[in-house]
Amino acid sequence: MVYDVIIIGAGPAGLSAGLYAGRSRLKTLIIERAQDGGQIAITDEIENYPGSLPEHESGKSLVARMAGQAKSFGAERLADVVKSVSLEGGIKKVACAKGTFEARAVIIATGAHPRPIGCENEGRFIGKGISFCATCDAAFFEGMEVFVAGGGDSAVEEALYLTKFARKVTIVHRRDALRAAKSIQEKAFKNDKIHFLWNSVIVSVDGDGVMSSMKVKDTRTGVVTEFQADEDDGMFGLFGFLGYVPNSELFQGLLPLESGYIRTDEDMHTGIPGVFAAGDIRVKSLRQVVTATADGAIAAMQAERYISGLE
């Protein structure tokens, strides 16, 4: 069977594309290797998505409604890992672990993943003190001390969330001022549990089984300070929020990339007829849920126009 559209990725961009494609009566397949929602699925609270629930909108609840809408319009969902793609020609091929699927158009909505902290021994302590998801792992550090690497919106928002669990949260930032939106900064500065290490980078972590020590370097003086976990705790947490790396490995050499992100025009065209990109995977000035859903809608409607031209 040849689908009209295959969407790679089930984050807000992919689900929005699936909704619009299905509503246009296109035979649609959404392929996602992990849980629906991508990054937003692990966000505890969403305040800036238009129409979000006023009482408490989480990423999980918002994504669940998006996925339900896409399904209600007939979009099929496949849990699988995409191994390779063939994008040229009238019929595109997407090779997955469970088989190869064909479509007249492809929408790439693979998003991005957290950037590593970049410190020595980082890999040894992921899941043993180091995390990239406060919503997932904050409860493990109930009553403990935690550190947050980063200074943007995500870092400060997650630091605020961590104060619900940790007794002390320290934001480690390589500059002397945060990059987060002013409204978010104001909340952090008013929170007594949040502290700051300015002009600092984490150079190494260590411990016996779990992370219990960390070395931080002052970027101005070069002085390295070691932090040790409280004896009663035996460990502390380190959460990385230093930005994201685009999930574009599949498209190296196939599509024009800029710093790993796919270049598109304002209508999500990639340069290959019938191939579109939407959401955080593409070059853009603002990566938010609202812009991702808009991208997905545009990509789906452009795919419908493309397919109509083939008939």
TrEMBL record:
Catalytic activity: [thioredoxin]-dithiol + NADP(+) = [thioredoxin]-disulfide + NADPH + H(+)
GO biological process: removal of superoxide radicals
EC code(s) of this entry: 1.8.1.9
Keywords for this protein: FAD, Flavoprotein, Oxidoreductase, Redox-active center
Species of provenance: Sporobacter termitidis DSM 10068
Family statement drawn from the similarity comment of this UniProt entry: Belongs to the class-II pyridine nucleotide-disulfide oxidoreductase family.
A GO cellular component annotation in the UniProt record: cytoplasm
Enzyme type, top EC level: oxidoreductase
GO terms of molecular function: thioredoxin-disulfide reductase (NADPH) activity
Organism classification: Bacteria, Bacillati, Bacillota, Clostridia, Eubacteriales
InterPro entries: FAD/NAD-bd_sf, FAD/NAD-binding_dom, Ferredoxin-NADP_redctase_2, Thioredox_Rdtase
Pfam families (UniProt xref): Pyr_redox_2
Cofactor(s) required for function per UniProt: FAD
Gene3D superfamilies with a match to the protein in the record: FAD/NAD(P)-binding domain
Domain FAD/NAD(P)-binding, chain residue ranges per copy: 3-296
Protein name per its UniProtKB record: Thioredoxin reductase
Record note on quaternary structure: Homodimer.
